[in-house]
Amino acid sequence: MEQFRQSDNFALLRVLLVEANEKDAQRLLDALRSGGHAINSRQAAGHPEVAEALKAEQWDVILLSTSLPDLPATEAVDLIGEQAADVPVVLTVERGSKTFPLELLEAGVSDFVFKSNPTRLLAVIERECVRVRLRREAGLVEPMLESQRRADLGQARFFQLATNTPECYWLVDAKTQRVTYVNKAYEQIWGRYVEALYADNQDWLRYVHDEDRDAFAEALKEFRQGGMDMQIRVQRPGDSVRWLHVRNFPVRDEEGKVISIGGVATDVTSQVAEQWKIPYFAHYDALTALPNQMMFYDRARQLIALAKRKRIPLGLMLVDIDRFREVNQTLGHISGDEMLRQVAGRLSGSLRESDVLGRLGGDVFAILLPDVANEEQAGIVARRIVDTLIMPIRVEGQDVFATASVGIAFFSRDGKDAHELVTNAEIAVAHAKANGRNNYLAYSADMHHGIRERLILETDLRNAALRKEFVLYYQPKASCANGHITGAEALLRWNSPRRGIVPPDQFIPLLEETGLIVTVGRWVLEEACRQLKAWQDEGIGLPSVSVNLSARQLQSDSLLTDIADTLASTGLKPGCLDLEITESMLMQNADTAIRTLSDLKKMGVTISLDDFGTGYSSLAYLKRFPIDAVKVDRSFVRDITADSDDASITRAVITMAHHLKLKVVAEGVETAAQLALLISHHCDIIQGYFFSRPLPADDLKSLLLADTRLPPNLLQSGTRYPMVLFVGVDGFDDVLDQLQRDGHRVCHVQYVDSAIQWLSGNLVDVLVCAAPSGHFDPLPVIEQAIATQPDCERILLADSKQWNRRSVARLSSGGLVQRVIHLPIESETLSQAVEEALGRRQISEEFSRLSHEVEVVERQLMRIEDERQRLEAENRELHAQETHARRLLQEVMAELPWPVLGVDECGILALINERALELLAARGIAPGVPLQELLPEVGDFSGICTLKAGNSTYTGHWRACDFGGNRIGHLLVLEEK
Length: 977
Prior knowledge:
The protein is built from 34 helices and 36 strands.
């Protein structure tokens, strides 16, 4: 143990080392002496020793080891809290410690350092000493003010002011010239204790610079009653020099008599042209006690110069805490600061003593790694940092986990100076975050190239908005009920003069990131509405257009105004505009989204939930969202015919949406099999390449004029549930519920525009319209139903009001409705009437279906009969040809001078001329007998053979016989030798 005693008035640093290891204690003292402090230290390891040391002296700081064999750290903290609660405690931790003393930090320990790398120790202690002195001054001022109140109220106010300012203030008795008060700033500026000045009022002269001491002493004598104004230099411990601006003034009592001389000394070192050593804290971060940005860059320049001169490698590492902003927003800035302080300690403990760790600002730390030459060596350090931060950090009574993304750069491969190295390391950090965070990457030139390309793309994108290079394509949607086009989705494309048509996935994310999506989204909205209104004015029947909203647009305060202004300027009906919003966007802030969507619904627009099934919304939220349709994501539709799970998910989504009275749109339909399966699952609308790719406006116009539809045969591939549409009907919720329980699909809309749009995209079996009134006219709805779905049975409710009887009579007598039901009516009666209408519609539909099937079967039978007759005629013709050929062949064989035998493909004798019968009569030759049994020597119908008959020898020649391109047999011609 080493002991220092106060031999002079130096500002001693009194340190109690609670440490058992002599080497560790010495290493910590050496780190403290490096700051130029005179140190009074004492080492203690056991409970009695620590208790006695706490009683014997007042300490400035206590360094407490967490690995004492005879004294647990928690017990030591309790002991210190009992005897020296206001003394800051700094933990000293072994690097290889398996447990980190999180509970001690919660118990009031100020900070921690690692014994293997105590470079932060001095800055931590100076920071804590400053805090303690400020607290002590605040506690000391009250008794002092009380005593001064009895003497002089003016001096008391002066004391209060002096205690809370960084300048050095003092009071000198006017008669005795003794110092009666000096604030604690004296210790910060002069670097000495105030007790020495109280004991000897000439004490401060000893530490004035040699060149200024005499002038200062003369000024004190000359301006004994005030009026001094001069600059002097003060020599601080460790050869540090500060420039002071010193002034004094008289302090009078209530009668105007001078009772004291007040003085003030202000540190103006930074304002003096000739600067001496900058104070220690000017180079260090006050929160983490690490070198700040200025000092880090200075150390980096020194190490780079050394690396150039000595040709030694140098690495630079940037550590960026992941999602630190979320911690600040959730737990508050105080907790965020505590987290950074602990992270700084852990980073320091993960490095060598030769490494330089600094804080560049915010949650970004930088490390200089001398003698680290490649990624493998730097990776060891990076992995150690990542592993260290995995341990939880205790903040405000709860565990917080901090991960980091690390970027690495090397001198001089990745940069010639400190700024270039840091810049390239930042690029590597950005790529590490993009790769999932909590990892490290070394910088490479490819990363810079990617950043450059991104900047060029962003520049071109900003110019595209100014030069109006964006265009809209439209992908039509088709009804699964009747095959008609029910709407189109407006899709943004970038027609770049240099790049051509740029796919949206290459520029939409950048539009979101740069904020341009709000401006471009407003243009998309205006252009889509203008184009649809232009088509409608030309008589082209496109019911609606869908526009995608981005997350930023949904959060924008101007969204409602933009949509209202667009509808007003284009003249488009609100019911013709459909807004598509992704599921993930809604769930980012569900309550705010619900309010925004509700305001949009009040305008009359429809809302679709895009990419449904890929997000994380619950049914509870889905019921709260005021939406009209859900769009099944293409990822489910793609494998719907091959993957039973995808088919089950899609069917479940469709069923659930229908129970919530929502339409279902399936995206990405590319094959007939997908369409057939979706129709069998009762999907309402499809969209995809099977029907049409996204088209320019002119091409979509041609498609609409041609009245292109889905293939009718595919629309009959599935069964569906009966559908009832109630329009403007109130007060019959029990009827709607009963119909749903009976297995029917029910939709209830209030407004005429919504009903017309529903009829354009869905098959309706029964339409129930409310009675005509001042605010509701059922005629447009009924006319739309007649035009698009003439088989739909139409029911009109009529009340007893005199003024609307004429309207009801006109609708009834004109054949526009099949039934009029007069109100009031019981729910059971209305339900029964609808059920009867559904029954008639089902019978009619079943009859139509059976008639269609009978017609199809009859057409198939007719085709089969025609085919049978054709084949029969062809067979007769072939048989006649074959008979004719046989006769010709027989006649030819009869005229030949040689014996000739004819066999079919099976080797059976079929033809024999007269000469062959005569020659081979002895062998029993006859038609219908296998030739090999009678004449085994003739071989296998190929080549030449030899045959003896009677007294002669014959040479046989085989010839193949073909008819109509087919082999029908062989001929054997016998020639006598």
